[in-house]
Here is the input.
Amino acid sequence: MSTRPATEELTESRRASREIEVPAPTTWPFILALGAGLLFAGLVTSTSVSCLGALLSLAGCVGWFREVFPREHEEVVPILPEDIRLATLRRVVDRLPILPDQVRVWLPVRTYPISAGVKGGLAGSVAMAILACGYGVLKVGSIWYPINLLAAVAYRESLRLVPAQLNSFHADAFAIAFVLHGIVSIFVGLLYGAMLPMFPRRPILLGGFIAPALWSGLLYTMLGLLNPLLASHIDWFWFMASQVAFGIVAGLVVVRQPSFPTRENVSFAIRAGIEAPGTMASRENGENR
Here is the structure.
């Protein structure tokens, strides 16, 4: 029984560590795909195209199978070493404070109550309404102009108003616009109250500029379907200004409300009231034993 010299084994081990075997490149998959495409294209063109596709598909299958059976076609590729150096421009690493009884940090650490979002939404709605009514006075000389346009979002009768009637007061349109504006503002205020704790350093940047820009862009693409009357009469400069005013006022009101720590260490079962009280204490006692 003969054995290989140690020098030969060392040479092969060095070559193996610097080279790897990968499947050899082949064109048979492309031929198979082309044949399948011609095979189905012949269903709407002619039978000869389908026959050509069938021949190409069969040739592609046979050629692709022969790349694997009875012997795999592979080629040796050299491994090029890469010198990876990690560098950072930060001189100080920020570390989040963790309480002694916490296993890890849950973000946000503090949040705002629901009342903060409601107050922020109502305050923002007032600021937005002031700018909208100011736009109506400066454009057509009537504060009822933007109110009637807003009512047209959900009120069909407002869509039938002629331009002269949009400047007059309509009790039904005013009631619908008032309720619609209040509900939407409260919901957006609640959204601000939930999102602003995630951006503790620049909450007004999110609430006053980023969110209104995204919201205005979304409405710009959908307003023609939701409210054609409003889309044909809207002034996008004033619309953006009113959205920014809502975001800034709502954000300031929300961040000035008292916050409270999030209940990150309480399991979902306890929060939902499913697990009985005292379970965690008994579990801790069992672990101490």
About this structure: The mean pLDDT is 76. The longest helix spans residues 114-140. DSSP finds twelve helices and four strands in the chain. Residues 11 and 17 are 10 Å apart (CA to CA).
